Amino acid sequence: MMMNGRNADADTMAPVGSHGRQAGFLSRRSFLVGTGAGLGALALAGCTTGGMSLAEAKKVYGPVPDEKFPIPAVNISKVDPKYYRRTVRYETKEATGTIIIDPKKYYVYRIEGDGLATRYGANVGRDGFRWNGDVVVGRKGEWATWTPPKEMIARQPEAAKYAAGMPGGLDNPLGARTLYLYQDGVYTLYTIYASIHPESIGKGVTSGCTGLLSQDMIDLYNHTEVGTKVVMLPS
């Protein structure tokens, strides 16, 4: 295994995929820490934020009503504008389509070629749960089922009601879209997932997974094929 760092916490909740295998892990109640600082000063009309105006951000991160479970608009006052989606210069030898995660800067890049990348703000693993290495997208899921492992049910009995699986939905920890990360044909327990918690972006809050705002995750998901290389940079 090329991956380095601590693996998934056995006491975190994990979803189950169509074949009954563990497929990611995060609890909405346990993986978030702290709250985002207010950015009220940026609400001034005409203010630009790293290449995207507030008006544009409200549109990009607006509601997504046509989803199976309609996604609400992001409260962008809880997101540092530097984490808004944008196209940036990014020189790399990786092929077009490759996903690069930079946990130090809380960014996810999708390589577009010609020295450009689409950059998304992200949350990443908290201290003690960060890792690095090359993996691939082994499978994809929309509104995936999530199931707590028995270890967590033993410690948090209230999770027992999801022992048979928590159906997809806004309250489901995996959110609207999930990319499951594999290495050497084995599921790593790590995912890139959709978050409805804007205050988590730019923070280390998970047990090793990487979260994007739902609107960003849908964009990344739609441009990512199974087999895509994912590079987790050292933290």
From TrEMBL:
Q: Which Gene3D superfamilies match?
A: L,D-transpeptidase catalytic domain-like
Pfam name, any one? YkuD
- All residue ranges annotated as the L,D-TPase catalytic domain in the record: 97-233
- Superkingdom of the source? Bacteria
Q: Which UniProt keywords apply?
A: Cell shape, Cell wall biogenesis/degradation, Glycosyltransferase, Hydrolase, Lipoprotein, Peptidoglycan synthesis, Transferase
Give the pathway annotation. Cell wall biogenesis; peptidoglycan biosynthesis
Q: Which residues form a coiled coil?
A: none
Q: Which family does it belong to?
A: Belongs to the YkuD family.
Q: What is this protein called?
A: Lipoprotein-anchoring transpeptidase ErfK/SrfK
Q: Which organism's genome codes for this protein?
A: Kaistia dalseonensis
